[in-house]
Design goal:
Elements lengths: L3 H16 L13 H13 L5 E3 L9 H8 L4 E4 L10 E4 L1 H14 L5 E6 L4 H16 L9 E4 L9 H11 L5 E4 L2 H18 L4 E5 L8 E4 L2 H16 L7 E4 L2 E3 L1 H11 L1
Parallel strand pairs: 1-2, 2-3, 3-9, 4-5, 4-6, 6-7, 7-8
Antiparallel strand pairs: 8-10
């Protein structure tokens, strides 16, 4: 629940669950597979009708989630999914969205584009990194992965991350634009870029996945309402007795900073 995206998901899921005559019970696992397994066991003992799960960010799947799949218990994975395992899941078009964003930067003349990402342990970061690569492949342009900064979960914090990103950017003077995997990393990268600009007058364009709330920064916007609605619909489908696992993708939109600023000006 630490990000606005998480909060929006819960808000819309609760809305659609209630609209269909059900009640939503929430358990926050804080990226712990142990807590995730306990929550699943608790809910099964409570005889809930079904579950919506944001899978934890780990390299291996949780046995408790796999058991739900084997038992054909009604559940839907949201935001992430289990690769090579057939389950119901709903995710945004991470790969296509990132490809469009990086293509936009390439079209603007950026050749050396940096990437700031958490360690890639889930389908979200994996798809976004593939989208980054695909933009270069489609242009038949060489991609330099030495310009990628991957941060461990223990390295991502307000006290550590801006400094680490600034040091990285200093070591890579050829970088003229940076793409960040999420809004939190966009905030830390913006701080690093702003600090560099004051010291060296160096200009670096920033683009990110999810709205960072930073004026002048373009971003990829997920349709959280539609993701939530499709998730609830798929769960109800199972509760009503139908079982045809499927993976659904919801389109995203590239919001350019000048378009956002224009819209805000019109509203004002």
């Amino acid at each position: 629940m630490k990000t606005k995206i998480d909060q929006e998901f819960v808000n819309y899921i609760e809305k659609y669950v209630s609209k269909n005559g059900h009640n939503l019970i929430i358990k926050i696992t804080r990226e712990s597979q142990f807590e995730e397994a306990n929550a699943i066991e608790m809910f099964r003992k409570m005889k809930v009708s079904g579950m919506i799960i944001f899978p934890t960010e780990k390299e291996t799947y949780n046995d408790a989630v796999l058991r739900l799949s084997l038992d054909k218990f009604p559940f839907v994975l949201i935001d992430r999914y289990m690769e090579n395992i057939l389950t119901y899941s709903v995710t945004s078009e991470n790969e296509l969205g990132t490809c469009e964003a990086i293509t936009h930067l390439l079209n603007k003349g950026h050749k050396n584009i940096g990437l700031v990402s958490p360690i890639m342990t889930n389908t979200v970061t994996d798809e976004r990194s593939k989208g980054f690569e695909n933009a270069f492949l489609k242009r038949k342009t060489t991609i330099n992965k030495n310009l990628w900064l991957t941060l461990g979960f223990n390295e991502i914090s307000p006290n550590k991350t801006p400094k680490l990103i600034k040091e990285f950017l200093l070591s890579k003077p050829e970088i003229t634009a940076v793409f960040t995997m999420n809004a939190e990393l966009a905030l830390y990268t913006h701080l690093a870029i702003s600090s560099l600009k004051k010291e060296t007058c160096r200009e670096i364009e920033l683009l990110t996945f999810d709205p960072p709330g930073i004026p002048g920064v373009s971003f990829i916007k997920q349709d959280i309402a539609e993701c939530s609605k499709k998730t609830v619909d798929l769960l109800l489908e199972q509760i009503e007795g139908k079982y045809e696992p499927k993976r659904m993708y919801v389109p995203v939109t590239l919001k350019l900073s000048e378009e956002v600023e224009l819209a805000e000006t019109i509203l004002t």
